[in-house]
Amino acid sequence: MTEQPDKFLRHLFDTAIGAVSAEQCLTTHLPKPPKGKTVVVGAGKAAAAMALTFESHWAGEFSGAVVVPYGHAVECKSIEILEARHPVPDEAGEEAARRILDMVSHLTADDLVVALLSGGGSALLTLPAAGITLEEKQTINQAFLRSGAPIAEINTVRCALSAIKGGRLANAARPARVATLIVSDVAGDNPAIVASGPTLPPTASEPVSDILDRYNIDIPENVRTVLSKNTTSFLHKDAFELDTVSIVARSSDVLNAAKAEAERQGWEAVTLGDDIEGEAKDVADEHARQALEAARFRNAESRPLVLLSGGEVTVTLGGSNGDGGPNSEYLLALGLALNRDPKIWALSADTDGIDGNSRNAGAILTPYSVSGAIEMGLDPTGLLTAHRSATLFEMLGHTIETGPTLTNVNDFRAIAICAGAY
Questions:
Q1: Count of H helices and E strands in the chain?
Q2: Is the pTM above the cut of 0.90?
């Protein structure tokens, strides 16, 4: 191994991101042009890049619009790029949802709707159900983001609060067919969960009231009444049989790309899982245990080893505002659990380029991060308890800054176990 572990890990992350760019993954999944019109709609952090790739490879005429977070727009010729707030919805997202619904109205059975969906689309494509205000949706959304609830449960509630999610966008487009192309950011890759499934029938397995009660989410009585009535009985479920759904990029794709590149460079690579969920600190403790166990059996003659994983870890903030996100919290907890082992380095970052409420995608952990922070007068354990992990990595200069990557398949984690200390 000739490259410093931190540079090697960053190279793996960049390789992984490139593997799930729209240009790399979308074109082979495009549907056949219809007899009638083609309308392109979409939402999410990857939607603008997907729209641009669609424009470059679609043979016939088309029109449409997609909504992306502020700062994620790219210039397209025929598809309008709208911007709105993420992760807490705003009025721009509500207006975008209304415009997109209007675009798919009054279509015929000869027409085709192409839906470009990716992570972040649920907050961006926001249209409250009748009887609920945007302010009420914002309040409930913020409470869930702080609760530590997994995204599948959050999106179940979002569907019930919405006039466009949970298959309602496809319902508005009938009798047109819908081809949904998805960049998946959910563990298990259930397409009905990505962006809260505006073009797919929902697959919720429990009442919304149970989820609200589990996380002690206090909601107004009028909202609870709407939730009890906002069912999916209106959906023309037989019509979905004519639709198509393709997941064009997912967590396993980035891990496979990183594994292949690591092996090309002479590393041994092991994938721990592409759908790992749970509290960031708990996952870090388990990964530290696995890394330390692997390090015990390696000597100067061993090939370096990298442990790869994906999925989505969460942080329960409680009463804390926090500073950072799940990836930096995972890394700080990992560093404390590793107890400064000189052979182990790590990277954890969100593939969308934004880790929680930080300005970074994530960070790199060196064997000296914890001791270096202490020498600077920081309290790593206290920062972890206060959910201020980003502060530590920013002070050390170990953050990863990419800006919006225009894709999103959730967390990418890599733990490098070297033959000797660096």
A1: 16, 12
A2: yes
